[in-house]
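Sync notes, pocket subgroup
Present: LS, DG
LS reminded everyone that the earlier model was apo-only. Rerun requested with nicotinamide-adenine-dinucleotide included. Inputs:
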Amino acid sequence: MFIVPERSIAELMTRADAFDAVEQVFAAMAAGDAYNFPVIREAIGHQDALYGFKGGFDRAGLNLGLKAGGYWPNNLAQRGLINHQSTVFLFDPDTGMPTAMVGGNLLTALRTAAASSVSIKHLACPDAKVLGMIGAGHQATFQLRAALEQRNFERVLGWNYHPEMLPNIAKVAQEAGVEFQEASLEDMRQADVIISITSAFAPSLMRDHVSAGCHIACMGTDTKGKQELDPAILADARVFTDEIAQSITIGEAQHAIASGLIQDSDITEVGAVINGTHAGRQSDHDITVFDGTGVGLQDLAVAAKVVELAKAQGIAIEVDF
Ligand code: NAD
């Protein structure tokens, strides 16, 4: 089997490769060729850690495996390590033998940014010019960098619950040569695309902050109880997701479903739009929401690509296992 350590990922994986891997696996999911296993997430009663597994099988790409990892809140303060830790394990679907172990930390950020970018490509208005960012933490920088490649954005509006973090995303916009403005939530009415990537448990973006035609990639809500959007937005929008089962249980749609504003049948997997079996946005006035919950198959797809690149470049570590 091969090992690709965390330290090698940055030099191997590009945003373009992550985008292609995630777009392909979303398409395979919607075609019924790939499926995710139920997610395990446990408070292990040690170091206040949350630990779990996200796995699946992609029959089209022949990727079988899982991402194991979670959140160790004391890592940074006590050990100088990042709090989110994950590792991807891949297996040969013909034999069950392990084929690779891959560092999953940077890959998680790249695959999450790729997911919102895929949604922007397939659901945002083609002439989108203003990008709104809600969130300015670790993931937000990756989200913004990837999204700027999807449309000819001229301006980025940034709002964050902790305004002192906004320079994190201002820097990314400036590096890409795009004007950045600190904004209010009301200013988000000017946005053609909004990315929301916070760890909030209550909505920031309300219905009257969103204009007709806007595409919202809601990426922060990946756990029961988390929430970023007013459920009334979903009630008025065409709602898309990576996987419906996750969207209604741990994604943003959990709230609109619980309050009876939408039903499961109102939600479409974005892969159907990629495959051309769903029209996606149907007018310049539609509000579209992508509920990006983060599926294990995304992790397997980008990990498999990294292993391919590492082998081709001779830097995958081979072990006799
Ligand atoms: P981070 O800790 O670096 O940043 C957290 C962000 O949330 C900051 O912008 C912070 O200001 C904001 N925030 C914190 N409390 C808030 C509140 N009460 N109201 C509004 N905003 C608040 O975290 P991160 O690594 O950037 O992750 C952000 C979120 O994305 C987390 O919820 C994480 O679980 C989620 N995530 C989702 C996926 C996915 O696939 N969908 C993947 C990775 C991370």
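DG: The chain has a mean pLDDT of 97.
LS: The first strand starts at residue 2 and ends at 4.
Action: DG to write up.
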